[in-house]
């Protein structure tokens, strides 16, 4: 069943990154090691801000 409610999603997890939705804004909170911010911006149509405590997800974790 499709998700149609507003503000129902709090976190978005992809193969490259984790985004959280806080106060109506999309925040990049984790990124896979080796993936740079420019690549994420190219692949992501939505605007996002970068969290001050951005975590790097290592491949061996």
Automatic annotation (TrEMBL):
Its EC number is 2.8.3.8. SUPFAM superfamilies: NagB/RpiA/CoA transferase-like (SSF100950). Keywords: Transferase. This is Acetate CoA-transferase subunit beta. It is an enzyme of class 2 (transferase). InterPro entries: NagB/RpiA_transferase-like. GO terms for molecular function: acetate CoA-transferase activity.
């Amino acid at each position: 069943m499709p998700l149609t409610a507003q503000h129902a999603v709090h976190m978005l997890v992809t193969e490259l990154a984790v985004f959280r939705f806080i106060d109506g804004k999309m925040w990049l909170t984790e990124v896979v090691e080796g993936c740079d911010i420019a690549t994420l911006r190219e692949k992501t149509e939505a605007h996002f801000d970068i969290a001050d405590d951005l975590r790097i997800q290592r491949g061996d974790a």
